[in-house]
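Reopening this ticket.

The earlier resolution said the output was attached, but the attachment link was broken on my side. Pasting everything inline this time so it's all in one place.
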Amino acid sequence: MVGVVGYTKFNYVPDDNTLHSMLKTIVTNEYQTFKTIHELIIDIGISFLKSINSFHISSDATSGWSALLYGWIYNDECIDKQNHAECLLQVWLKNGIDGFKGLSGSFCGILWNNSEGKVVLVTDKLGTRPIYYAIKGRELIFSTHARAILQYPGFPKRVNELAIVKFLMYGKVGIIGDDTFFDEVKIMSPASMLISTKEDVKVYQYWDLEYIEDKKFHKKKYAENLAKAYIKIVNSIVNKFNNVALQLSGGLDSRSVLASLNSTNRRRVFAVTFGVERSLDLKIARKVATRFGIKHLIINLDPAELRKYAEYVVYITDGQDVPTVSYLPYVMKRVIEYGLNTTILGFALDLLLGGSYLQREYFKVKNNKDFILSLEKNSTLFSRDELKCLLGNRLGKLINDARREFVKIAMSCKGDSFPNKADYFFIMTRVRRFTLQGSLIHREFVEELLPTIADDVLNIIAKIPARERYGHRFYREFLLRLSVDASKIPYANTLVPPILPHKLWRPLQGFLFIVDKVMRELSRDRAALFISYFDFDKVLRESKEWRKMLWDLLVREDALVYKLGYLNRGCVLKIIKEHLKGKKNGFKLAYLMTLEIFLRLFLSGSAV
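Inline output:
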């Protein structure tokens, strides 16, 4: 895996094998190589892609400070530099923690000073390149992958059982808070800085996303400004790379990136689309690629082939992503074999603009109690009643603790209205803890560019009123500014072309959903309008390879989830039986399968 590992040496110096043992857990394929850095107070190991080194190192002899940066800084004064660690170091030397507020991009950094005895870790504003850390004695252990920390001498290999409960309760929201599945291993918050010395470890937050709407908001003006900012950042970062792939789906985010490319970059970039035969994403992406005249690579997904990657995605993400995304490593291998080494994504644009999670009910909320209940309703994977049946006594007693933490996080959400607080919640939970796991899988094979998180883009989005973000209202205006042509092609989630007046979207979408339902019933699910690029419910029900995996993981009496008393087998078998009879329990089963895979991979039932 591409990433970094390390530890301080203030009071204790591990043997020479420690750094290599940690590195071994993150170097997982032939596309990667590694190197090590040894300093008086810190050892660092780096794993990077052979085709592109996204690590930068810089030192300042006068101050004694050195810096390592993983990723890219998007500021104008930095983006043209070969060494982005120089930018990080100069910002730190000139302005300290306050300087980080002005940094834009996708990165994490490490700074150290041998003479002062200080080590500093820093994350970007949305934490797109996570850093995990733990404290043992007075030493700081850190890595971009939590599992590497387990290789540090004497570090306990224990499951964080509360994290398991949170994982099952809240699904795609992820493990709320800073916990991981490994006891005593934490994830750094977005826009945070950790300072470690011989005496102590302190963590500071230098920035936070907050939706505060502009009272003088003018839709057309804001759409024009956002389009200009997005076009600028997309082209400025694409200009610096060769062999760039754009993941083109039937959605709006990838279409927005493509529409932002200038004619020169459009000729340089390859569109890549994946999906099963007849999927809606393939059909729509073909139309978009043809309309823009961009080179287009189609990757057809074979469910039986994807089964091979189920355990892999759990391992790469330290148990935080599930087998429903087993197509990602399969696709990324094809991308790199095709000669492409960088991918650009419309990462989280839909989420930040409010199209995905901004429900109508949040506009009706009057108090914190109702707000929390609404968030819970839209976050829950297994309900509390389901969990009481599903969880053994060992985990069942932690349900209330998990909910108390959920309430605490919900109450701390920032924003000037409940809809704005709701968007903040999902960005700082789901995006931070679940969506970003897909990025980890991408970077196993290729470097990743995320224009959405540029400051010029975020600063505009944070001022758009919630009612304008709701239901893609503003997104439609933004896309029209980017390209009228892009707006004429239907959107996969609705089958409605964005160019149509917004007031027609819901009626047309509702009508098409009814047509889809009738087609499925008449054809016994052989014909439909809305065919997903990867229907995990169907795959888990019909694929021989996936059903065998389901049996091996969750039907066997000796599965670790049962031996350890975590899950009640009878309840799990009921969920499986319901699914095989047609109920859509695939996503729930994916989480239960993930838990069993995680235990087998990392703990093997011992020291739990």
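Reporter confirms the inline version is readable. The radius of gyration is 24 Å. Residues 298 and 436 are 24 Å apart (CA to CA).
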